[in-house]
Design goal:
The complex is a heterodimer of chains A (about 290) and B (about 325). With about 290 residues, chain A is mostly helical. Chain A has a single domain, classed as ABC transporter involved in vitamin B12 uptake, BtuC. Chain A is built from 11 helices and 4 strands; from the N terminus they run ββααααββααααααα. In chain A, the strands form 2 sheets. Chain A has a two-stranded antiparallel ribbon with strand order 1-2. Chain A has a two-stranded antiparallel sheet with strand order 3-4. In chain A, α1 packs antiparallel against α8 and α9 packs parallel to α11. The radius of gyration of chain A is 19 Å and the shape is globular. The radius of gyration of chain B is 19 Å and the shape is globular. Chain B has about 325 residues and is an all-alpha fold. In chain B, α3 runs antiparallel to α4 and α10 packs across α12. Classes of the chains: A mainly alpha (about 290), B mainly alpha (about 325). Chains A and B meet through α4, α9 and α11 of A and α5, α10 and α12 of B.
Amino acid sequence: MEIFGIPSQALFGQLLIGLINGSFYALLSLGLAVIFGLLNIINFSHGAQYMLGAFVAYLALNKLGLNYWYALVFAPVVVGATGVIIERTMLQRLYKLDHLYGLLLTFGLALVIQGLFRNEFGASGSPYPVPEVFQGVFNLGFMFLPKYRAWVIVVSVVVCFSTWFVIERTKLGAYLRAATENPSLVQAFGINVPRMITLTYAFGVGLAALAGVMAAPIYQVSPMMGADIIIVVFAVVVVGGMGSIMGAILTGFGLGLLEGLTKVFYPEASNTVVFVVMAVVLLIKPSGLFGTQK
Amino acid sequence: MSNEITTTSNPVNRTQLMAFGVMVLFFVIAPLWVYPVFLMKVMCFALFACAFNLLIGFGGLLSFGHAMFLGMAGYVSAHAAKVWGVSPELAVLCGTLSATLLAVVTGLLAIRRQGIYFAMITLALSQMVFFMCLQMPFTGGEDGIQAVPQGLLFGTVDLSVSMNMYMFVLAIFLFGFVAIWRIVHSPFGQVLKAIRENQDRAISLGYDVDHYKFLAFVLSGTLAGMAGATKALVFQLASLTDVHWSMSGEVVLMTLVGGMGTLFGPVFGAAVIVAMQNYLAQMGAWVTIIQGVIFVLCVMAFRRGIIGELANWLRKSL
């Protein structure tokens, strides 16, 4: 069977890869958007924290014998805890300054983290086994879907939409959104805003770590795995506009799919298509597809 | 970055003239003791950092993609010298103009957003340029353009003689530096600083803010390109390293260490970082770690940078 002259196997295969990439873009840009909403900084070390998540899973398996399921809980907690330390000792001191200093600080932290891991583990990647339950494929009739990839997509969708639900539809989320609008007023109502900011940062980087654990069996675990993906995620964030949680999620999945499609029809541009979309969006709607210009 | 920056607002003053004299004297006599290739590297990066500083220090725009100008100009300059066989001054000119062109295209996109978004957009655009350089046939992919001929300047001066090349690079560096000095003190530079301090007020005073920012971006990209075009001739090499995002990070670091918004800070910062890379080259990944630590220290405790602190202490603008 062929669609537009492309064998359907190849088309669906690339679309699946696109959807997988999109899952990670969505999780990462969601974390960036949550952090940006309350802290007003762009977390440049997000890619390094995604890598940290994968490494926590890798080390837990090889040094402690803890399997994938433990890592899925363990890694976000560990990386989230380092996030608390980073926020409390460093980021907190920068809020009254220009927001660009937060970007520079987290960029420096990313260099340190990635450098330390490259020193310890070398530049090449190490494989991480697919958990036993997910070995094998589903036969969908028109294509084969590896079970683990299906799991990644499902988890990503569930996590993204529960985050959206918590922020947009619950009382806790209402506090969060209120603090985004006017922190001092929310504090006057007796809510501990500084603690909320710390926990928000920890949650955002925890999401990155979760994405890292899920990425470990698909991509290899390597110190620089987060360095390039984070730049694409920045472009995703510019396209979606940072104001909206749902915007970050939908743009992440959408651009992942588009990248997959480009790989089928015009492979030379597959690396750059996200950036081209960003340029076009900037020309037509500078505030981003879902954003509002402040 | 309003409060942290020492402004150089007065017309050309004596301290700056003296500092300029010291700097010129240093670069003229330094090759007697210091390896000239090292000094040429410092001057190329110093010009690069000064060009970057024009945007962040005086315009308040943090570009995280300046490597695209450095790298692209390097490729074009190397290609012109090697494949078209033009003389070195024309090769540098071709490279510089290519950076201008790139800055016009990317500037039109990037100035549509401010602050953090501006940084992310420039980073994304430079990553796009990186992938284009990786794939375009003329750049030689992973190998880059190697063995670029240095040629005869104006058809007479042989640039493969080390000291001739040194004077050529020094002349270009000083030209770029003086150009930036002039720009900063011009009415255009004053408006730019006004926009940095308070964009809304500048708009209400009737200035076309986007126009000024765009012009600053193009000037900065052009001068960064001039640094890249020269660098390609000095090292006879144009490679992907110069287009990579880590190079964009390095120029931010150089400027931060030296002092954002100071005239001489980026030169000093470039010298410090290039020297550090040279001495620590055999330590591999530790260079990245140390750079990261310097970043963190500068942001946390040392936001004025070395020259900025000095200027603050002397109560003069440098």
